[in-house]
Design brief:
Helix content is 30%, strand content 23%. The protein is α+β, with helices and mostly antiparallel strands. The structure holds zinc ion.
Length: 133
């Protein structure tokens, strides 16, 4: 069984940094939705690929128990990232949020390599490595 633990403040700080860095695309999320962050101590794979993190919309019927619109989970693999890699990972997950403050949706990747063009354009295809320049 996998264990999930709530954010200790580190993930929220990463999200804050990502929103500051990309105010035009992510800044509105501060006002338009409620996001909760958590860790999972397990590994996750999808189509044979390691999943570092994911972003899910919270169903309306669960919001009495989880007062938020989205949950972002960082899996075991994300622990190996340096801070830059972790900020980029958070940035990626936040890009999955599509909201105008009333409607909450998940935005799918816009590239066949399961990523967003904006991420690839900014950092290249191996942005998860988070190498400091
Ligand atoms: Zn993604």
């Amino acid at each position: 069984m996998k264990n999930y633990t709530p954010d200790d403040g580190v993930l929220a700080a990463l999200a804050h940094d990502a929103m500051e860095r990309w105010p035009e695309t992510l800044g509105h999320l501060r006002e338009d939705c409620r996001i909760m962050y958590q860790y999972c101590d397990g590994e996750k794979t999808k189509k044979g690929q390691t999943v570092f993190a994911d972003c899910e919309r919270v169903k309306e019927k669960y919001r009495a128990f989880m007062p938020c619109d989205y949950v972002i989970t960082f899996y075991l693999a994300a622990r190996g990232l340096n801070r830059e890699g972790a900020v980029r990972l958070m940035q990626h997950e936040l890009m999955h949020i599509e909201t105008d403050g009333s409607v909450h949706r998940i935005r799918e990747h816009d590239l066949i390599v399961e990523d967003f063009r904006a991420m690839i354009d900014a950092y290249g295809t191996d942005w998860i490595e988070g190498r400091e320049k």
